[in-house]
């Protein structure tokens, strides 16, 4: 005889358990206003802190930017002032150098003019001496007198040549010293300026 099973008891328990499990998983818990209040207060406090930090950061960044701009402007002004000062010094220095070159040229031209006058004077005196000696040689009556006149003329011309050379050498040295003096002064000033430490 077939045995009877009670099929209704077992499946009923399983269906009820499934419904209960389904009900707990799909239905979200209901939040009450008392539970939401602390979360909203915390969110508001965090928002206020965030706004304060953001505002402080913005103010600090703005202040830092303004300080950086002010510092940059100050550095540019100092650099410009130094640059213009250096430019003025260089322009003045260059003008002094040009003035020294003009002075050298003037002294050299005057010295050459003086030497030219001296050479002309020497040439004129030489021509006069040669004319006088030639007249004396043509007026000689004997050969001995002619030889003596020629010997005396040669000796006097040699002595005159030595004296004239010494005079021209003296004039040349004086001209060279006077001409180089302004340039030498500018060179000394340049070396002194370069050796002097740069003022901060």
Please tell me about this protein's structure.
There is one protein chain. The chain has 200 residues and is an all-alpha fold. It has a domain at 56-194. The chain is built from three helices and no strands. The protein has helices spanning 9-26, 33-138, 143-195. α2 (33-138) packs antiparallel against α3. The longest helix is centred in the middle third of the chain and has 106 residues, at 33-138. The protein is rod-shaped. It starts with 8 loop residues before the first helix and ends in a 5-residue tail after the last helix. The mean pLDDT is 76.
> What is the helical fraction, as a range of percent?
over 70%
In percent terms, what proportion of residues is strand? under 5%
Low-confidence stretches: none
- What string gives the helices and strands in order? HHH
Please identify the structural class as seen in this structure: mainly alpha
| Count of individual helical segments | 3
DSSP, total strands: 0
The largest sheet is:
none
Mean pLDDT: 76
Dominant shape = rod-shaped
Instruction: Give the radius of gyration.
Output: 58 Å
Please give the alpha-carbon distance between the first and last residues.
Answer: 123 Å
